[in-house]
Design goal:
The chain is α+β, with helices and mostly antiparallel strands and 136 residues long. It is 21% helix and 38% strand. The protein has helices at residues 2-11, 14-18, 77-90; strands at 26-27, 40-51, 60-71, 103-111, 115-117, 122-134. Strands 1, 2, 3, 4, 5 and 6 form a six-stranded mixed beta sheet that branches. β2 and β3 (60-71) form a beta hairpin. It is globular and about 40 Å long.
Length: 136
């Protein structure tokens, strides 16, 4: 499954781990009322899945992913480094089997401006990507 494949790639990356983004601090879905206690953490927010083109192979779709990187310190440096690494990991994985299909394209849609999240009491930025992938 694409979601699990992407989570594993990010959570097990040595450079992200060195920035304190790892299996314990990368959350694969939106969280409820409980805010993470870690200083740095990421949230992977998957968007709406849509068919690539009407009338074409129904097993191919496009889906957006927004990767939110947070830091409770007043330093956007680790966030910017982490989001750059996310791009470096995910954009080149075209043609890779994700376990239940193939990744056909990964489009980098850029990053957000510097933000403050009142809910998590942390600074944040995000990187938006669009995947085109098949599912078997």
């Amino acid at each position: 499954m694409l979601r699990n494949f992407v989570f594993d790639l990010l959570a097990n990356d040595a450079e992200l781990n060195a920035l304190e983004y790892n299996t314990n601090t990368i959350y694969p879905a939106l969280m409820g009322a409980d805010s993470p206690q870690e200083r740095r953490f990421m949230v992977l927010r998957w968007g709406i899945e849509s068919p690539r083109s009407p009338g074409r192979d129904s097993h191919i779709s496009r889906i957006g992913l927004t990767v939110w990187a947070y830091n409770r310190d007043s330093d956007y440096g680790p966030i910017q480094s982490a989001l750059g690494r996310v791009r470096d990991i995910l954009v080149p994985i075209v043609g890779v089997d994700h376990g239940s299909g193939w990744i056909l394209d990964v489009e980098d849609n850029g990053t957000s401006e510097d933000l403050w999240d009142d809910g998590y009491s942390a600074i944040t930025r995000n990187r938006a990507l669009t995947f085109t992938a098949s599912e078997s």
